[in-house]
Amino acid sequence: MERQDDKHDFLPSRQVLLKFDKWYSRTKLFDKISRVAKKAGVKGVYAALLLYYALADGKVPLRDKIIVVGALGYFICPTDFIPDILGPLGYTDDISALMWALSRIWNNITPSTHERAKSRLRQWFPSIDESDLTLF
């Protein structure tokens, strides 16, 4: 019988995720979002904001918060697998890391977290439609 965790063996370990902790900070995150919002797109920014607000949610377990910090740190890190200097192509790995983290913690994201992220997102993208926010 296959264990639930067996299908995630290819995913980064906790130690790998913690390496990106040094890159994560609220200031660095919002600086990066404001610089790359148009290039990363509505969905990319929404994913980052959902993860950011999930960190503040007391209902999100610590193991999920470690995943979030790793993904946000990777998003912020200027020297990642595909350098951001390559333009839109350079954000594909960043967005993939954010989406992977979201997929791992999705069931623990509260409606309040969604609303907070949408409210902040509208500051950068005032004319977004709900259909723009479908991630999965």
Task: Tell me what you see in this structure.
The protein has 136 residues and is mostly helical. It contains 5 helices and no strands. The N terminus is likely disordered.
Describe the secondary-structure layout:
Blueprint lengths: L13 H6 L6 H31 L5 H15 L15 H14 L5 H14 L12
The portion of residues assigned to helices is: 55-70%
Poorly predicted parts: 1-11
Arithmetic mean pLDDT: 81
Query: Separation of termini?
Result: 28 Å
**Multimerization status:** single chain
Rg estimate, integer Å = 15 Å
Largest sheet: none
Shape: globular
| Number of beta-strand segments | 0
Order of helices and strands: HHHHH
- Quote the beta fraction: under 5%
Q: What is the helix tally?
A: 5
What would you call the structural class? mainly alpha
What's the short version?
The chain is mainly alpha-helical and 136 residues long. It has helices at residues 14-19, 26-56, 62-76, 92-105, 111-124. Helix content is 59%, strand content 0%.
Q: What labels would you give this structure?
A:
136 residues, mainly alpha, 59% helix, globular, disordered N terminus
